[in-house]
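Bug #2210: token dump truncated for glutathione transferase?
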Amino acid sequence: MLTVHYLVNSRAQRILWLLEELEVPYEIKKYERTPQQRAPPELLEISPLGKSPVITDGDVTLAESGAIVEYVIKKYGNGKGIPSESGSLDNLYFSHYAEGSLMPMLVQKVIFDMIPKNVPFFIRPIISAVLAQVTKVLIQPEIKKHLAMIESHLEKSKSIWFAGGEEPTSADYQMAFPLEALVKSAPELVGPKATEYVKVVHAREAYKRGLEKGGKYAYA
Ligand SMILES: N[C@@H](CCC(=O)N[C@@H](CS)C(=O)NCC(=O)O)C(=O)O
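Reproduced locally. Full output below:
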């Protein structure tokens, strides 16, 4: 039985969505976050970086959501989750872009938001002011540029999905998390197509089943 090592409130939700869409039997091993919102040390016993998602499947232990998504679709997809020929380049691009370019920028913003709470109180106002300025000048314009590119892609797509087909593909399993995080944290920056996209994902029965099994999740 495939096991998803599931850190609560994390990207691992995308793996539950995928497994539910493909109707793959699986079990969940849940890990609570530490008070600092990190993964607990037990995850280090599963995989060397101690992050989630990780899956174990027989002799296989695999981390990195993009790799897990590809592995599951290839091994258990039965033809589902595969883009059409015309959508394959978009699928390739967005499958990698999600964690390669979009997520690092969002993580940077989360870290910047956390820094003031973790410095001595007497330097907090100055640190907050500096980080607010850096966010305004450097990070926000970048996020806007990314969201404009995504919006323009979704406007041109033949369907709601990133690869333009009838069903979600790996690009969607990868893109849903950063987009739902953005809709939650900065809805004013997200365009109408991407907002609609997140609504469609959240309305999928498979997504809802994954959510029910995963439990507490801040982004849906
Ligand atoms: N690029 C990796 C990122 C994995 C990752 O950073 N996961 C987060 C959860 S969203 C995590 O485990 N954070 C806890 C920690 O770093 O302590 C992936 O897509 O799987």
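Output looks complete on our side. The radius of gyration is 18 Å. Marking as cannot-reproduce; reopen if the truncation happens again.
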